Amino acid sequence: MSCAPPPPILRLHPPSSISPFSSPRRPHLSPRTCPWRLAAAREMPWPHVLTVAGSDSSAGAGIQADVKACAALGAYCSSVITAVTAQNTAGVQGVHLVPEELIREQLQSVLSDMSVDVVIPSAGIIKILCESLQKFPVKALVVDPVMVSTSGDSLSDPSTLTYYRDGLFAMADIVTPNVKEASKLLGGVSLHTIADMRDAAESIYKFGPRYVLVKGGDMPDSSEAIDVFYDGKEFVEFRGHRIKTRNTHGTGCTLASSIAAELAKGSSMLNAVQVAKNFVESALHHSKDLVIGNGPQGPFDHLFRLKCPPYNIGSQQRFNPDSLFLYAVTDSRMNKRWGHSIEDAVKAAIEGGATIVQLREKDIESRPFLEAAKACMEICRSSGVPLLINDRVDIALACNADGVHVGQSDISAREVRELLGPGKIIGVSCKTPAQAEQAWRDGADYLGCGGVFPTTTKANNPTLGFEGLKAVCLASKLPVVAIGGINATNAGSVMELDFPNLKGVAVVSALFDRECVSSETRNLRSILASVRCLA
Ligand SMILES: Cc1ncc(COP(=O)(O)OP(=O)(O)O)c(N)n1
Ligand SMILES: Cc1nc(C(=O)O)sc1CCOP(=O)(O)O
Ligand SMILES: [Mg+2]
User: For the whole model, what pTM was predicted?
Assistant: First the structure.
């Protein structure tokens, strides 16, 4: 089915950075007094994490670790300093708290001027923080309850416990204690096994956060670094290699800020935790022989990727939202009409430049479907194109597909996640902001939003138009792919909408209800590329 020359190689232009600097004497800004703020945010969206934490003079942990981790993962990180600590690779020598009034001032300065997505707060400033967040709401809170540093030093007084348990946790999206901190939070219970960590996660969940991650990196006698994730219903174990190195100072702060960076970029919580774990593990691995300082515990290199081109070495992100650029969704009736097998149709779509494929086979028996899905998996794997299965989790499991796409009347993303585990991609069809919010809560990785235009491919499908698509895009940080009636004539106008999280278009008939699937795909891709570039 090769009917035309191959597509050109395209390049992604990263969005240009916003200038973060403002004079300390500049007055506080609000959207109302400063109309250019909204315009600038729309034109140059940039994932933004605000860390509210202490300074570590050795720069391995605290504010310094957060800024470096966010930078390494492509998020901007602003900082409100709550304490100045004197520490080095031997331990913590001194702590000086910043006066509350100055913390309030810093919060006001950042939040009134910048569009912040995720905040990593510290204990002791809950009242001030609550006031600020009421005025300037953010997308998520990641709470790393720093009470015991990796070196074993106690970093907070007992009243901090109360602050965490009775205030901050209820506001948090995720709380990330290590085993020692979980034990402290729960009145000194001893945690020795995975079962103990699960119990601890359940107990901490009752303080009010949406997710808990109990980190097992400091668990003695374990050859693996196992973290236990709990969402109030199910547990997920994240297993990583334990890297033998003295350079583990700041791993807790780094994990939390990496989660925050991924959330700010639009990831689901599970994906954010997985990427953050991979990042910390890679950083420890690359820094294992680094010698900075003479004490027993050294820092590691957050920017290790700069030294090992290509720059994405070590990144094991399971889902790249850019893959939604040109999403080919198959249809067996159309294939039959043109005498194409599913495999040939998928091969041709990939040849034409499809960046992700979904098998949407509504009237095919399970066994031939599975056979075709296995063959398509081979085709997609060899081209580096993710393959998702529409609706059928059983088929996805049996052919080890990259993920599943479900709609509002299918089983929920949360249930799909339970069946597929954290490593797979889950897409959810959403027509409203409320559905988008629920999909994010359920752990979806992307949203399919439509019908943007009328379609005959899906019966009785309401048309949302650009307004409906806009409402869903603006309501969510998850990447969105537009679907419904999209073809060579109107695809450019969809991409021109230029919402930051609108990553591409999903197309059925304009690719597959055609004789030459590869040239239709190639043509559509070049139309999309003329509006927006892709790496
Ligand atoms: C990318 C993408 N978006 C939306 C859909 C529609 O899914 P659903 O609402 O479950 O409808 P069916 O496709 O199952 O008829 C999709 N498949 N892909
Ligand atoms: C499968 C599907 N889902 C839709 C939604 O709105 O969620 S529209 C649709 C069909 C898209 O087919 P075509 O590209 O041929 O219009
Ligand atoms: Mg469905």
Answer: 0.58
